[in-house]
Amino acid sequence: MKTTKTLTIGEIAAQRPESQAIFEKYRIDYCCGGKQTLEAACEVLNIPVEKMLNELQSIDNEKIREGDPVHLPPLELIEYIQDKHHEYIRTEGPVIMGMFNKVVEKHGGEYPYLTDLSTLFYELHVDLLQHMLKEEKVLFPAIRQLMGAGKPDEMKIPEGMKLDFPVSNMELEHDRAGRLMEEMRRVSDNYRLPEDSCITWQNLYRHIDDFEKDLHRHVHLENNVLFPFAVSL
Fold this sequence. Notes:
- This protein is mostly helical.
- Helices cover 67% and strands 0% of the residues.
- Helix 1 (9-15) packs across helix 8 and helix 5 runs antiparallel to helix 6.
- The radius of gyration is 19 Å and the shape is globular.
């Protein structure tokens, strides 16, 4: 695949999974912002598009990440998203909140922005839990039904119904999650640690960074791979 500046970020990330690491390095939004072209994304961030093209072209065309979920059939991709990413949010969210409680208690007096940061993450986590239930109880069963693979105990959608509207709603909720994470970066000065930060605070920021990267991959698989398939059914 030859990468050109008129391809969208989502297309590049889906067809060349190795590009995701480059997008992460430059903080180019390849999940929620996946519909913008490479040229437009570079312009917004004031990155020379030719420099980005050179880095992307340096990826070995023959090296395709084995087992990358972007290549899974739709039904398997749904199971992967639930087992890998939904479960991660459900288990990691409470861990991060527990770390926040300790850090805010110890350092919140001197660094009051930690309380705001904790509140933002709590809001993000609650939103994601509700969002995932909508996918698991409504959207994913609807996709299975339209593919003739519905399960007896799942909710049924009316015959002839298209998935444009529910998919659009899920994308809007993804956008909100992305904005909350960006606000967290703003409040924390891009997760800058003060000199007197304790080990728990340092671990907290590492966990948040991992959480954000997992969310990027999660939303990418839905916005740029699964959802386009769903609206085509």
